Amino acid sequence: MNTKYKIFLFAVVALLTFGCKEKTEFGDKSLSVSKNGRYLETEDGKPFFWLGDTGWLLFSKLTREESNTYLEDRKQKGFNVIQVMVLHDVAAKNVYGDSALVTSDVSKPLLTEGNNPKDSVAYDYWDHVDYMVDKAAEKGLYMALVPVWGTNVKEKRVDEAQAKAYAAFLAKRYKDKWNIIWLNGGDIKGTDGLKVWYTIGETLRANDPNHLITFHPRGRTASSQWFHNAKWNDFDMVQSGHRRYDQDTSKNEKLHYGEDNWRYMEADYKLKPTKPTIDGEPSYEDIPQGLHDTLQLRWTDADVRRYGYWSVFAGAFGYTYGHNSVMQMYKKTDPKPAYGPKDQWITAINAPGAKQMKYLKELMLSRSYFDRIPDQTLVAGKNGEKYDRVMATRGEEFAMLYTYTGRNFSVQMGKVDSDDVKASWFDPRTGKFTTIGEFENKGIKEFDPPGEPANGNDWVLVLDKI
C-alpha cells in the first residue's frame, strides 16, 4: 500500500469517525449542550431558548380535558418547557383518585394491566402521566419532570434502594419520548439526601442516555454547590426564591444574594468545567413576598420581567416563569391551597407576566445566539445597586442593556464590531422596538429611557451593527 493511499484511507476513516455528528433517535427535537458549553441547542444546531412554566401539580390536579387547555395556552404564549412533579408526595393520587404507588413505596408503581394513555375510560396514574406527556409532545412542549419532590427524601420516605428502582422505572418508561428533561431533586438542598440524589441521577443517566438532567435546588441555593461536577448533571439550575431583600434569612448560606438573581448566574458562569445555567424558580407572579404571610405584598409582572432579563443578560440559557395559582393548579374547591392564591388557574394563565415572557425569548432569538456573553463593561461609570442596576450582554454585532427603573445610564461604546451602530428601545411589556437613531461607535454616550424613572418602567437598549 503506497503512502498516498494510506493517507487517503486514514482521512476517510477519520472523517467517518470524528467528522459526522451521530444522530440521536429523536432527530432535530433532541436537546444537547452547545459546543461552547453555555447554551442548549437542537440536533440541527439551532438555538433552544428555554422558556419554562411551573405547572408543578399538573399530573395530580387536572383532568385530561383541563390539561389540554393548559398546555395549549402555554404553547400559544411561547412557553416551550413545562416543569412538573411526577410525585408531589409518595401518597400521590391524580384527579380521578388513582394512586401512583403501592403502599406509598416509590419502588412499586401501581400499574394496571392493559391500560394505556389513549383509553378514555380505564387507565391508571401512569397512563394519565403518559397522556399529558404525549399531549405536550403534540404541541411541541418539553416536559421537565421532577421524579419525586425533595421533601419525601428529606423525611426519609425514600431510601437509596427504592430510589434506584424508581428511577430505573421512570427512565425505561420515558426514554423513548423525545420531549423529556429530568429535574432531579425538587426544592431541596443537595445535602438533604445526597446519596439518594446521586442514585437517582446516576440511574437516570445509565438507563436514559439521551435526555438532559439537572437538579432543582432549595430557594436561595444553586445546584452547582453539590452537583456541578456530577457526571449525570448536564446543566446547572438555581432557585433564586421568593423573598425580598429585607426578608432574606439565608445569611449563613454559601450564596447570599438577596433578590439579585443575576449573581447566581455570574457565579455559575465562572465555574469549570463550563456548563449552562438557569434560574429555574424565581419569585412567582401573584405570590406573597416571602411566601408564607398572605397579607404581604405580591410579586407582579414587573418583578418576573426583572428576574428574567437580569438572569438571561447575566449569562443564563433561558428562564422559568411561575404563577402562584398556576403552579398549584388552584381551584376554588381545593381544601388547603398554599400561599393564598386569588384566581383559579384557568384565569391566572392569562396573568400579565405570562403574556409578556415570550418577548424575552423572541428578543434573545432575534440576534446571533451562541456568541452572546454577559459584559458589564458596557455600563460606563458606576453602576446602580439593587433595582437600579443595569445589566448588559452582547454578541459580536449587537449589545443589549436592561434597566428595570428606566433611569438614565451611560454606555461604553465600541464593544460592537462596527464603526456606527443603530440604537433602539425594546419594550419588555409589548415586545416592540422604537428606533432612537444612529451613532458613532466610540466614546461614552448617555441614554434616556422613555418615561419617568420608576420601578417597573423597564427597557432594553439595543445597539446593532450597521
Could you describe the 3D structure shown?
It comes from Pedobacter endophyticus. One of its GO terms (molecular function) is hydrolase activity. It contains 13 helices and 22 strands. Helix 3 packs parallel to helix 4 (125-138), helix 9 packs parallel to helix 10 (301-313) and helix 10 (301-313) runs parallel beside helix 13. It is globular, with a radius of gyration of 23 Å. The protein is of the alpha/beta class. A six-stranded parallel sheet has the order 10-9-8-5-4-14. Strands 15-16-17-22-19-20 form a six-stranded antiparallel sheet, with helices on one face. Strand 6 and strand 7 form a beta hairpin.
- Uncertain residue segments: 3-23
Percent helix: 25-40%
Assess the beta-strand content as a share of residues: 15-25%
User: What class, by secondary structure content?
Assistant: alpha/beta
Main beta-sheet annotation: 6 strands, parallel
Number of domains: 2
Radius of gyration, in Å, reads 23 Å
CATH superfamily of the largest domain: Glycosidases
The rounded distance between the terminal residues' Cα atoms is 56 Å
Strand order in the largest sheet: 10-9-8-5-4-14
CATH topology of the largest domain: TIM Barrel
- Identify the CATH class of the largest domain: Alpha Beta
- What is the average per-residue confidence, as pLDDT, rounded to a whole number? 93
DSSP helix count?
13
The counted number of beta strands is 22
Overall 3D shape = globular
In CATH terms, what is the architecture of the largest domain?
Alpha-Beta Barrel
